[in-house]
């Protein structure tokens, strides 16, 4: 995550030069640091264990957020317009139209990349992560379906991708906390009520990251994005905070499931109300500044699926950090997936190396998790 797009106290800098989508990152140049990937040994002991206790069953009275209504006996957040002058907490699924598909083989090559792979009779999964041209690795990823001794017993896969921000150590810690805490939650509870437990865990992690301090006791000001997806048999649940991307890729094309939680959401609402023009919104230098992220100590936006998306054999779920989607367009991601769909572990590596092949001057950390329904 480019720190130019993150302001811990949410005081936006109108003079900051925020990059457009798929453009080079406007950050200070750094030297290439070689092979780098998430290593839990580099994280403080404080994030090695998950001490919070979760109930096995949700309480009868669940926490009630703003803009919450009850539909068919279940609570659901209103999917209304975003008020540019009001902070709300909401759940909504954003489904942009898929771009046209093209079919061209990607450039290949394996370099400086760690790859995690696993196969089961239900899902084929793969993940890959690379430091890019940054000084530290602030992306973190985790997959539940990585039992190499007995992989065929799993009919589900739980994936987490987090992109840290707020300085080297702050970003590393924030993203590592996201993956460690969320995976521990997955291992501890029954996710039959996915929305309840996921939101509870998001809130807990948000508060923990907000309290991070440096050696002098000062607030680190760290933050992170976090995408979670849970595929079980033919059902897909997911949640998202921040601007990392989550896609479903199938016979109908590529579709992004989540929104980018940045200032552009409010600018679009202002366009709809007639306050500004679309040209003014697109030229606003603050448009990519995050308005919801892990560590803000009170999440403003959480996108959570309360009903599952039905997935069919051959469907691909893909989560990636902005280091990938700023280098590769949705159409390029789609064509690469279709090219390598028969080898998901290798596909994860190809996508990362295709990103690096773009040779962006300030290439951010890049990470991807892929799960294909068999």
Structural features, described:
There is one protein chain. This protein is α+β, with helices and mostly antiparallel strands. The chain has helices spanning 168-188, 194-210, 264-272, 278-283, 322-325, 330-339, 344-357; strands at 68-71, 74-77, 114-119, 123-130, 139-143, 156-165, 223-224, 226-232, 235-241, 245-250, 253-256, 303-304, 309-310, 316-320, 366-373. The strands form 3 sheets. Strands 5, 6, 7, 8, 9, 12 and 13 form a 7-stranded antiparallel β-sheet that branches. It is globular.
Question: Kindly, what is the distance between the CA atoms of the first and last residues, rounded to a whole number of angstroms?
Answer: 32 Å
Number of strands: 15
Q: Please tell me the overall pLDDT.
A: 76
Question: How helix-rich are the residues, as a percent range?
Answer: 10-25%
**If you compute it from the alpha carbons, what radius of gyration comes out, rounded to the nearest whole angstrom?**
20 Å
Q: Estimate the global geometry from the Cα principal axes.
A: globular
So how many helices?
7
Residues in β-strands, percent: 15-25%
Classification by helices and strands: alpha+beta
The stretches of 5 or more residues where confidence is low (pLDDT under 50) are 4-112, 148-153
Please trace the helix and strand order, writing H or E for each element: EEEEEEHHEEEEEHHEEEHHHE
User: Could you describe the largest sheet, including whether it forms a barrel?
Assistant: 7 strands, antiparallel
């Amino acid at each position: 995550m480019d720190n130019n797009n993150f302001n811990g106290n949410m005081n936006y800098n109108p003079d900051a030069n925020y990059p457009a989508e798929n453009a080079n990152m406007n950050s200070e140049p750094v030297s290439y640091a070689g092979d780098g990937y998430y290593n839990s040994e580099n994280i403080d002991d404080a994030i090695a264990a998950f001490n919070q206790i979760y109930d096995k069953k949700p309480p009868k009275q669940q926490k009630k957020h703003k803009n919450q209504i009850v539909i068919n006996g279940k609570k659901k957040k209103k999917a209304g317009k975003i008020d540019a002058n009001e902070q709300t907490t909401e759940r909504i699924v954003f489904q942009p139209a898929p771009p046209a598909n093209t079919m061209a083989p990607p450039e290949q090559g394996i370099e400086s990349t760690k790859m995690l792979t696993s196969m089961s009779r239900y899902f084929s999964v793969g993940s890959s992560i690379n430091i890019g041209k940054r000084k530290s690795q602030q992306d973190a990823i985790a997959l539940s379906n990585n039992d190499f001794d007995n992989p065929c017993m799993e009919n589900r896969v739980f994936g987490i991708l987090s992109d840290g921000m707020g300085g080297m150590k702050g970003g590393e810690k924030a993203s590592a906390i996201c993956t460690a805490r969320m995976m521990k939650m997955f291992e501890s509870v029954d996710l039959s009520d996915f929305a309840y437990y996921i939101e509870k865990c998001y809130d807990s992690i948000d508060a923990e990251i907000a309290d991070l301090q440096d050696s002098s006791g000062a607030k680190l000001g760290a933050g992170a994005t976090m995408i979670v997806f849970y595929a079980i048999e033919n059902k897909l649940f997911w949640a998202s905070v921040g601007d990392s991307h989550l896609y479903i890729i199938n016979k109908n094309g590529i579709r992004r499931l989540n929104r980018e939680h940045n200032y552009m959401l409010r600018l679009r609402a202002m366009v709809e109300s007639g306050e500004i023009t679309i040209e003014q919104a697109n030229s606003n230098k603050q448009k990519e500044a995050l308005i919801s992220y892990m560590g803000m100590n009170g999440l403003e936006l959480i996108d959570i699926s309360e009903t599952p998306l039905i997935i069919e054999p051959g469907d691909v779920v893909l989560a990636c950090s902005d280091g990938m989607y700023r280098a590769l367009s949705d159409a390029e991601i789609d064509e690469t997936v279709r090219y390598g769909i028969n080898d998901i572990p290798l596909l994860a590596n190809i996508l990362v190396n295709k990103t690096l092949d773009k040779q962006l001057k300030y290439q951010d950390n890049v990470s991807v998790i892929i799960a294909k329904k068999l």
